[in-house]
Amino acid sequence: MKQLYVTTAIPYVNGKPHIGHALDYLLADVFSRYKNQQGNVVRFQSGTDEHGNKVAKKAAEAGKTPKEYADENSAAFRDFIEALNVHPTDFIRTTDKKHIELCQKIWQKLSPHIYSATYDGFYCEGCEAFVTKKEFDDNRGVCPDHGKPYQKISEENYYFRLSDFKSEIRAKIESDEMKILPEFRKKEVLNLLDNAPDVSISRPKKSLTWGIPVPGDDSQVMYVWLDALSNYLTVLGYPDADISDYWPPALQIVGKDILRFHAIIWPAMLLGLNLELPKVLLSHGYILVNSEKMSKSLGNVIDPVEILNLHGPEAFRYFFLRHIDTFLDSDFSLEQFETAYSSELANDLGNLVQRLATLCNKNNLELIYEPRTELPADYSSLMDNFEYKKAFDFAWEKVQNLNKRIDSEKPWALKDDPEKQSDILSSLAKELLATNILLSPFLPDTSEKITKIFTNTPIKAPDSPLFPKN
Ligand code: MSP
Predict the structure, then answer these.
(1) Domain count for the chain
(2) Which residues line ligand 1 (CB under 6 A)?
(3) Which domain holds residue 441?
(4) For 63-101, what is each residue's pLDDT tens digit?
(5) Is 293 in the active site?
(6) Helix, strand, or coil here: 100?
(7) E-only strand ranges, 223-302
(8) 373 is a domain residue
């Protein structure tokens, strides 16, 4: 049976998760829940990227083997995903035996497009990227993302002939056959594509020991990005398994920093394998702290577990899906998070539910509720175009309108006209339940609680508020 396949970037295991890692999972989860709601079956991959010198060095610093270190951090990512109330169908580790075997088979399938040559140039270990002379010059020899000088390397490598596919990739991006979101990133990618050289896809074992051996050449190890990108296929069992039920991916989610790997190298690999390109590549922005990138050296890295412990997963999901833009960089601060929690979640939604359910209960109201199957067209259009923050705003405006309606229609003042009171309360409760459906991909637990409260006989307010104020 045909399924919708959604993927997330697989983080390096050179550290524990930080709040920036949440976006991939939350956006994929909203997609998955929304599509499930509409009767689709969704295959949802996630996992961890475990090879490369970056990981090996961190492991050595911690006095551990790379595998021990990867085990610990991979488990931390897995726990983090669950803690967000996100439930991928698959979790792949690039050190899994199956991934390694399948990745080697992918290499073999790509071999008509592979040749060996000397790489004389620069490398950024932070990005795990080969750096062109132009990038080196533009950035004066220092990686702008990692603040470290590029390494000069000269080594015998295998190359992938990107030039075989550049014009086809360009055509598919331009025609939106592979749609890049947001639109302005598409232009950036097309500019990069023009200047993209063939890609080096291996490194000598002496420079990179922690990686997948190149089949048939023991002296070389696969470049980590080739290994990592293959995960989207190997998790489905490709090339051994038939993947036609899942391929092409309906949506691939990545941060803006790694879009270029996914919009250039990845499509070239797929064309080399005679596979279709993903339908949509969504690139989200960065979560900043006081307008700065989180980094260990600045000491501003925020541990997501601390934030989750403050008010639980629903509050976390609320902030990261509504106050962090889907596509652009956005700031996180504890103050903004606390304000959003108390004045929006607790006041706008929590109080609304409490107030309305209490009034309905006093009126002994029972709802004959038929869930509306059709979603508002504006909301569907936003959701179908992956404008998740805007769709969430749309739903929240309905919450705010309900508060306004209660205040202006004052159902509590109609004790002498129970019939009218009952009509108004029932109309408000039905509207809340309809709004609740729009909220459910974003706030699944809250939404479930609201459904239970208002479909109970009789309607009954929860004993404790949905979002307690400490
Ligand atoms: N291992 C690669 C991805 C390979 S995918 C085949 C990698 N890992 S990462 O750990 O650096 O990043 C994982 C994801 O987290 C990426 O989508 C990246 O953009 C995202 N983010 C990392 N820091 C971020 C923020 N501060 N804000 C938002 N997302 C960020 O790249």
Answers:
(1) 1
(2) 9-12, 20-21, 23-24, 49, 228-229, 231, 254-255, 257-258, 286-287, 294
(3) 333-454
(4) 999 999 999 999 999 999 999 999 999 999 999 999 999
(5) yes
(6) helix
(7) 251-255, 280-284, 287-289, 292-293
(8) yes
